Amino acid sequence: MIPFNKPYYSGKEKSYIAKAMETKILTGDMKMIRDCESFLESKYHFKKVFLTNSCTMALEISALVVDIQPGDEVILPSYTYVSTANAFALRGAKLIFTDSKSNHPNMDEKLIESLITDKTKAIVLVHYAGVSCDFSMIQNLAKKHNLFIIEDAAQCIDSYYLDSPIGTLGDIACFSFHETKNIHCGEGGFIAINNPTLLEKTEIIRNKGTNRTAFARGEVAKYEWIDLGFSSMPSAISAAFLFSQLEKIEKVQKKRLRLWKNYFKILKPLQKSKQIQLPFIPKYASNNAHIFYFICSSEIERNDLISFLDSNGIQAVFHYQSLHASPYYKSKHDNRTLANADKYSQCLVRMPLFYDLKTDEQEFICSKVIEFYSK
Ligand SMILES: *Cc1c(COP(=O)(O)O)cnc(C)c1O
Fold this sequence. Notes:
Elements lengths: L12 H11 L7 H14 L3 E5 L2 H11 L7 E5 L4 H8 L4 E5 L21 E7 L8 H11 L2 E5 L7 E2 L2 E2 L6 E5 L12 E5 L5 H7 L6 H5 L19 H11 L2 H24 L20 E3 L3 H13 L27 H9 E3 L8 H16 L1
Parallel strand pairs: 2-3, 2-4, 4-5, 5-8
Antiparallel strand pairs: 1-9, 6-7, 8-9, 10-11
Helix pairs in contact: 1-8, 2-8, 3-4, 9-12, 10-11
The site of pyridoxal-5'-phosphate has 14 residues, from helix 3 and helix 4.
């Protein structure tokens, strides 16, 4: 079986974990965490990075940091992972789900302005497959209506909008190091803060609502309960694992991009014959090769393709189910139809893409997709 994903290993994980264990400081604001944070800050010019134990946690922190109150409205895509929405629902926000674009699963920026009311507090962006939304449009809207921009950048390590790394343009961006992402530590993530007025608050919320981090720096005589907060820190074991992966990011990205481009090239004839729609990358966005997906012409065809590949030992998978139509939210959603989000729920399929995927395996996968479409 060719699996959909195999987590990447740098090969240095065990020796870095052993080094972390020798320090006998496995929790708190230890050096291994700061090393990962500094690496990210210097490579991608984030103003400040806080490592977390997941992107989900980073999103939950962000909702507290911008002080979402019951009844506040948050604009977000329907075609996304549940964590994007859950973080704000937990604080009592009203979720204003927005449709995707016809040529990309990302939220359609042109729909946003008409959804803004005097209760709107934030626009939550998701950059699907690591492909940036149109930031200049979003920034103009946020400025005009005085809204926070929070990014679910879970899939966006090493992604760019024009020359700016994703995570440097909004107020807060949340990234994931879950084992399904390009680099990982099993479960992990970080929150990048670019709005300096949110920095101190984030530091407190991420550390159980205490000023323990300032205490560790010797800035206060004792640490106290200052605000609401979460236990969000990874251990030194996760950070050590992660640091070994961060060091290999260029190598991982080069390989993934090569595999991604190879899929695109081999499957292009199926787009020419209008049988599938290959991924579209706008001029302002980079491609970090997080996902290789394409769009089938119907749900039945997509499901048949997944079964056909499965019977040939290939694990291809669909992706999100529109959140506005989910069992939890369906009755709370207003009546807008979100046709593009539904289209991606029904027709999008993802091919296996991971560092260790072999060229001959990839050629086999493509040959089976082509065989399916020539039947
Ligand atoms: C992976 C992912 C998440 C969740 O990340 P975790 O680190 O597993 O919490 C959230 N949003 C999106 C868009 C994702 O792809």
